[in-house]
Amino acid sequence: MVDNDMPAMQPWYNAAKAAQVAAFFARREGGSINVLKLTKLVYIADRRNLEKFDFPITWDNFVSMDHGPVNSITYDCINGMHGGLEDWERHLTGRSGYSVGLAGNVGDEDLDQLSEAELETLAEVWAEFGQMSQYQVRDWTHANCPEWEDPHGSSNPIPLARILKFLGKKYANELEDELLAERHVKEVFA
Length: 190
Fold this sequence. Notes:
By secondary structure, this protein is mainly alpha-helical. The protein has one domain. The chain is 50% helix and 8% strand. It contains eight helices and five strands. It has helices at 15-28, 35-53, 72-78, 86-91, 116-129, 134-144, 160-166, 172-188; strands spanning 32-34, 62-65, 68-71, 99-101, 156-157. A three-stranded antiparallel β-sheet has the order 3-2-5. A two-stranded antiparallel ribbon has the order 1-4. A hairpin with a 2-residue loop joins strand 2 and strand 3. Helix 2 (35-53) runs parallel beside helix 6 (134-144) and helix 7 runs antiparallel to helix 8. The radius of gyration is 16 Å and the shape is globular.
């Protein structure tokens, strides 16, 4: 049964990878992770993967929110707005207060949708930011992700080209066009 109050899932969004990214960070945090910290780590991981390999891990939409840049669909999943997603329920519990946790004993073998390169990106992000509090990671994104602009209580899209430009990509607009074309192919074949 489809809940008409829930936002539609985009066919190009990789919910399995996003759930496994979130599980990776929750596992590193000891089984439960603060939602603000998790949303920042997921964004940083996608941004880092864009920087290294010219493509994101989750294929999410990026937005500016008050606490910094966010992967929009992943944030909705964390908040239970896409209830019944097997990939999320297999890896993560529902949100409880300000945290989400692992759904059981999630091991390396359960992160099978992530490539070795993506796992390496996640490990790098954890090594750099894992010991920070949610507020320290948030403040880092405010200071170091110039694509984020304070929406003052709202939510504004962050175009891929803007992120790519601030990552120093010479052909940011062309790369954005390529990524959007690949997203379209994912949508057609979904």
